[in-house]
Amino acid sequence: MRTHPPGALGVKRQLALDLAARERLAAQDFLPAASNRAALAVVTAWPAWPSTAAVVTGPPGSGKTHLAGIWAKRVGALALDAAEVWSIADPLRRLGDACACVIDDADAVEDEVLLLQLYNLLQERGGHLLLTGTLPLHRWHLALPDLLSRLRTAWAASIEPPDDALLRALLAKHFHDRQLRVPAAVLDCLAAGMTPSFAAARRVAAALDSASLLAGRPITTRLAKGVLADLAPKSAPPSSRTG
């Protein structure tokens, strides 16, 4: 595991910019919890899906892409993102003889006709389509009636905001991805003082890693409290205008 040695400020700044987390996305790296139980069930229940498609939605950083990758590897699915669902990328040709496809960030797909063609082709083959998105399915701006009617039959599961236990586990994972050892007291301090969200856990871990590098000292609760204070939303100054 990595530690942060002291050194010249210029060297520490360079390290802070150059070091990046290597996120672990294997099946054993996924953190099961009450908030993602329904989404995890979609992956583990395959191939006993009630319909051709399944839709997993949740906030940024909640593990949708991680789950989609686990499913794609398990079933041998073609993995696409929203930008690849357009004619030039030719996803129908890339699908080949496969009977499974996953589209990450599918709520950003613009070519609804092509998405419908993918759905229909997989349905004809008795295959399956996994879609992920940030917005709940009912908030996707779908204009094609045939596509909308098909996706309304999909198995939909959402990932909820993390509880305290998952938040602490997420922080530990992000630090581990950065090859950092962080005391349990620091994790407790962060989980108690930060916004309980997936994106915030990633942001706090990155900020604390950089702060430790720049300070040339290990991660402590004191440093953690300082980072939380820096990341906290600042109140707008009172207006000096008079009515």
What is the structure about, briefly put?
This protein is of the alpha/beta class. It has helices at 9-18, 37-45, 64-75, 91-95, 112-124, 145-151, 164-177, 184-193, 198-215, 221-231; strands spanning 53-57, 78-81, 100-104, 128-133, 155-158. The protein folds into 2 domains: 34-158, P-loop containing nucleotide triphosphate hydrolases (Rossmann fold, 3-Layer(aba) Sandwich), CATH 3.40.50.300; 162-231, Helicase, Ruva Protein, domain 3 (Orthogonal Bundle).
Structural description of this entry:
It is a single chain. This protein is 45% helix and 10% strand. The chain is built from ten helices and five strands. It has a five-stranded parallel sheet, sandwiched between helices. Residues 5-19 and 235-243 have low confidence and may be disordered.
